[in-house]
Description:
Largest sheet: none
Structural class: mainly alpha
Radius of gyration: 16 Å
Amino acid sequence: MPDNKDMATEGAKEQLKGAAKQVEGRVRSTVGAATDDTGEQVKGKAQEIKGKVQQGIGKAKQRHDPEPGVDGE
């Protein structure tokens, strides 16, 4: 059964989640640097990268929605 969700809306949500994940990662990395915790810095950078990927997925969903704002029937 095909997914009937509006891809543009789903893409916007995905981008927002990705941006939040990037900010979270930056904070985590900064705290790691301030406390000399290399492990936390690496985890923060990884989280930032995941956020960037998630944003890219969201942008792709938006670009490939034939009818933005319209759910499938």
